[in-house]
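SAMPLE LOG
Freezer: B-3
Tube label: C17
Construct: single chain, 188 aa
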Amino acid sequence: MAHGLHAILGRQPCRLQHYAVQCGGGMAHRAGLSETILVFAQHRAFLSGLDTAALVARARVHSPEKFVLIEAESAEDALAAARAGADGVQLDKMSAVQLADLVPQLRALQPRPTINAVGGIRPDNAAEYAASGVDILVTSSLYNTKAADFGAVMRMDSGLTGLCSGPLQQGLQTRPQPGQDDQADHGR
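STRUCTURE (predicted):
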């Protein structure tokens, strides 16, 4: 990946997907809620009276060992988080062009904040986001995909008739055999 860029899977629903991403060289974004203080805009709505600087200071007093990450939905929010000394800024739903403009401004305010890009990042546009200068691409597109379109045809094998008895076998024997008109059983 470019300049130490990391791909991180967001909101992994199961351990197998988490493991698969790690095997592919990616990482899990916040495997648990206790490892990072991530403050979303929705959280700030309940903390009226606290600007970003006061919020970061409060987090450091109460949890000095924690990484403080502020999610920003605008350039103004991101710049306020960098000025406040947050360890990282998570830039939500910004275009790669917006990020390319914002990242140098953030780095000028704070030499080494961790800058995450999240929202709308997919395999077809990840290179554009990587070129913006962010440190981390957070995506859930790795496990969100279109469903596979497949079908199955089930036929009674004459060698299986001795495996079951009673009502089940009788029900199977009333079904049309291959070669007979069995369109009704295929849901057509």
